Automatic annotation (TrEMBL):
Residues 1-49 are annotated as: Disordered. Keywords: Hydrolase. Residues 75-496 form the Amidase domain. One of its GO terms (cellular component) is endomembrane system. The keyword Glycoprotein does not apply. This is Amidase. GO terms for molecular function: hydrolase activity. InterPro entries: Amidase_CS (IPR020556), Amidase_dom (IPR023631), AS_sf (IPR036928), FAAH2 (IPR052739). PROSITE patterns: AMIDASES.
Length: 521
């Protein structure tokens, strides 16, 4: 039997308050943190810590180390808080520091383990939550100061599921106003920077989540996606993610003043960002547990029948009007090669009407927003928001009721065409963007620039939302000091197929965060 670990000797310090015009972390208390995690000398030979400081471990490694007694939940949380306080003042990724309550939760987690209680899959594992879902007792700002009175009466389903699994929330991450931009900036908290390069965007709307987890703040970051808000930040920050099938992960905010309109709900999804594909898979399992508050939740199995081998992958042909940067083309070829070497069979083929699919997404989401939300949003948002939103909606067709109903009906045909396509090609390999990552506020340059980004560069991301399909992103390469990821799309409720392909690429491409940390050191 493994001996009980002795309490480690640590060098503690008070964390100084940080402040920035671009968005300070609001601390609830200055937590004591440790300089370095050193395994106690009496730890059992079978209870060993992974290499490196605890904040660099994967979620899978962290959960196993805590479960085995190689490290305590308190030590783990302290390590992540120290990392957060070291790098976040520059990044502004975490905008609410929950260190005090995280340490309390960690102490409770260690007592739970000492009692021999049943432990969740993420017992003691530090994570972050995007500040646009309900977190009990806190305002759901969603990047807007006017939302200060939207106090969450309970945790949203995704937060509740993560906590039930034992995860410990160390902070809330930044998001643009109403989570409606692909760039993370707002008057309430300020601009979030990309840890790879401050001159490129961290993406959006889960930009704070992507920046935080890439930099080593938490092992898993929660985010959500209605037009690319998980996959775009994953690409920009060099991490992995999965946008699940709509209905896979339950969603609900009790603080909301009205229900979401139908198509907005059907095109959005909650999901995880992480440095490792295995962590994305683990988080997906935890997040997808049932919650009766979401009537659209589907009890679909996480693993389906394995396709007959070799699995055929469709490398999506790029439409002629999209100019592809050579670095992106090289990354796609590299990803295809990684898949081929892993036993997949890759062919470049044309996917079903990606242009029409994207236009359907744009028309539906824009017209719903204009009718249901636009007037209220414009009253309480910044000039930057007005510029970005104005650029987004100029590409949409203005629909009357009949045309809107026709667009929603056309959605069914698009989904059917893609589902039939997956019968021959279970995986589609596609770009996230066909251009280098843009600047941190580039959607405020002009309406034309916004159209160029969403239509000309990230078309393959937003199009997938209207289909409700799962899409994974995995980093492949670093070009000119900036990460490049690719997207892997699969059939409805076949997240497992997309993640299997992502894992095959990751096995050969490696985890890019290690390169980032060397740059940040």
């Amino acid at each position: 039997m493994a001996k009980k670990a002795t309490k480690k000797q640590s060098v503690s310090k008070k964390v100084a308050k940080t402040s920035s015009k671009k968005g300070p972390v609001r601390k609830r208390a200055a937590a004591k943190v440790t300089k370095k995690v050193t395994p106690p000398s009496r730890k059992s030979a079978v209870a060993r810590c992974p290499r490196g400081p605890a904040w660099q471990w994967s979620a899978v490694e962290t959960a196993a180390a805590i479960r085995s007694g190689a490290i305590s939940a308190v030590e783990t949380v302290e390590a992540h808080l120290e990392r957060m306080h070291a790098v976040n003042p520059r990044l502004n990724a975490v905008v609410v520091d929950l260190g005090e309550e995280a340490l309390k939760a960690a102490h409770a987690a260690d007592k739970q383990r000492a009692r021999g209680a049943e432990l969740g899959l993420l017992h003691g594992v530090p994570i972050t939550i995007k500040e646009n879902v309900d977190y009990e007792g806190r305002p759901n700002f969603n990047g807007v100061r006017a939302n200060k009175n939207l106090i969450a009466p309970s945790d949203s389903p995704v937060v509740r599921n993560l906590k039930k699994a034992g995860a410990i929330v160390i902070g809330l991450t930044n998001t643009p106003e109403f989570s409606f931009r692909g760039f993370t900036d707002n008057p309430l908290h300020g601009l979030t920077l990309n840890p790879w390069d401050p001159d490129i965007t961290c993406g959006g709307s889960s930009g704070g989540a992507g920046s935080a987890v890439a930099a080593g703040i938490g092992t898993i970051a929660h985010g959500n996606d209605i037009g690319g808000s998980l996959r775009w930040p994953a690409h920009c920050n060099g991490v992995a993610t999965i946008k699940p099938t709509q209905g896979r992960i339950p969603a609900f905010n009790a603080s909301a003043t009205a229900e979401r309109p139908m198509l907005a709900h059907l095109m959005s999804a909650q999901g995880p960002l992480a440095r490792h594909v295995a962590d994305v898979r683990l988080a997906l399992e935890v997040m997808s547990q049932r919650d009766p508050r979401d009537p659209w939740w589907v009890p679909a199995p996480l693993t389906g029948p394995k396709p007959k081998g070799p699995i055929k992958v469709a490398l999506a042909k790029i439409p002629d009007d999209m100019e592809v940067d050579p670095a992106v083309s090289a990354a796609l070829r590299q990803a295809a090669d990684h898949l081929e070497r892993s036993g997949y069979r890759v062919s470049e083929v044309e996917v079903p009407d990606v242009n029409g699919v994207w236009q359907t997404w744009c028309d539906i989401i824009t017209n719903e927003t204009m009718v249901m939300q636009e007037a209220g949003m414009l009253k309480v948002t910044s000039e930057d928001f007005h510029k970005a939103w104005g650029g987004m909606k100029t590409k949409a067709n203005v629909l009357d009721l009949k045309a809107w109903m026709q667009a929603t009906a056309a959605r069914n045909g698009h989904i059917r065409a893609w589902q039939m396509f997956f019968e021959d090609y279970p995986v589609v390999l596609a770009p996230t963007t066909v251009k280098p990552t843009p600047g941190p506020r580039e959607d405020t340059v002009s309406a034309e620039r916004v159209q160029e980004i969403f239509w000309g560069e990230i078309r393959f991301i937003s199009a997938i939302n209207v289909l409700g399909l799962p899409g994974a992103v995995v980093p492949v390469a670093v070009h000119d000091g900036k990460p490049i990821g690719v997207q892997l799309i699969a059939g409805r409720y076949r997240e497992d197929i997309a993640l299997d392909a992502a894992a095959a690429i990751e096995k050969r491409a490696g985890v890019l965060a290690h390169q980032l940390w060397e740059m940040m050191a």
